[in-house]
Amino acid sequence: MNEIEIAVQKLKTNEVVAVPTETVYGLAARISSEEAILKIFKTKARPFFDPLIVHVLNAKQAKNFTSNWTEIHQSLAEDFWPGPLTLILPKKNISDLITSGLPTVGIRCPNHPIALKIIKDLGEPFAAPSANKFGKTSPTNADHVKTEFQNEVFVVDGGQSNIGIESTIIEIVEKSETIEIIMHRAGKITKSQLESSLKKYNKKIVFLNPSDSISAPGQVKHHYMPTIPIIWISEEKLIKFSNINAMVKDFTSQSYLNPVIMNLNSDATIAARELYSQMRECSKYPADIIICIKTKNQIGELWESIHDRLNRASTYKLI
Ligand code: TXA
Ligand code: MG
Asked: How far is the CA of 130 from the centre of ligand 2 (A)?
């Protein structure tokens, strides 16, 4: 049996397996088995208040799991699926365990041939959070997952995730003259891409932030954290210190002996792809603290998504 066949077999018998997607690797379980879904929470040490994303083969399959698939959802799916866009929809035929008891479900169609083949051969969607321990750095290759779970989880190796940060998560609220887009999580699909996709409806497009903690349950403040702390500091603030060591000492008031600088690529697409690998690389012994510098040229929508991750991943911020 090849890796895909083994994965499908395991999923059918209610095991969890790690599956590559274009964003990050996911820890998958079939959606119709509560026993399997429970294993996701147990393996990740994930709290039950944090809902899972359901991964579907296409828009046709997505419709089976929502009571309100509108023309706008259809149009977004046509423009962005398969791809890194998760739609929050009123749920249907989905266990409360997957949605943390919410009336809505997050659904996306991943743009990775292996993930799609697995969903197809399984005959049903899989639910999958990122394949890392809760609150820790997401994995973007098979080795990351193997290290994270000490080879306890079967991993289908699909190479390096091309995008490298998690999907954009949105919820659509259509009104008579406006289309509201609630941005639950920034990602690769940007506001301008969404805007240009929806302008054909001739309605005003309004972006909103999720207003309360219940509507954005997984967007906890500390997330994506590597094994050592990160100082996220802007160029302007950094030059006020005589050197890196002085800054670390002054700012953290702790004695870190081996600061390591994490240099992000100046191209946002590459920076996103490499972000989590770099966090892991920089955390290796003997480094004891990571310095990530926010430079002036990091401007643009994808940088905002990368900065969202750094903001949550860093222990110290001087921005
Ligand atoms: O790119 C991705 O989305 C990756 C790959 C594996 O597909 N998955 C991922 O899953 O990032 P996870 O579990 O790490 O993040 C899912 C987040 C939750 O933490 C929560 O914030 C949000 O999705 N979410 C899921 N269902 C939701 C719902 N019904 N309402 C609001 N937010 C929801
Ligand atoms: Mg995650």
From this structure: 4
Q: pTM for the complete prediction?
A: 0.96
Residue 122 token pair:
């399984």
Q: Judge residue 255's burial from the number of C-beta atoms within 10 Å of its C-beta, 0-12 exposed, 13-18 middle, 19 or more buried.
A: exposed
Residues 40-74 have pLDDT tens digits of 999 999 999 999 999 999 999 999 999 999 999 99
Structure confidence by residue, pLDDT tens digits, 231-284:
999 999 999 999 999 999 988 988 899 999 999 999 999 999 999 999 999 999
Which atom of ligand 1 lies at the shortest distance from residue 167's CA? 1
For residue 28, give the ligand nearest its CA: 1
Give me ligand 2 centre to Cα 138, in Å.
6
Cβ-based neighbours of 64, under 8 Å, separated by 6 or more: 92, 93
CA separation, residue 210 to residues 107, 147, 172, 192, 236 (Å): 17, 34, 12, 19, 31
Tell me if 278 CB under 6 Å of ligand 1: no
- Report the SS3 class of residue 232: strand
Which residue has the CA at smallest separation from atom 19 of ligand 1? Answer: 218
Could you tell me if 317 and 232 are in contact, meaning their C-beta atoms sit under 8 angstroms apart? yes
Contacts 24+ apart (CB under 8 A), 192-197: 192/301, 193/80, 194/76, 194/170, 197/75, 197/76, 197/79, 197/80
- Write out the two tokens for 185: 């999580």
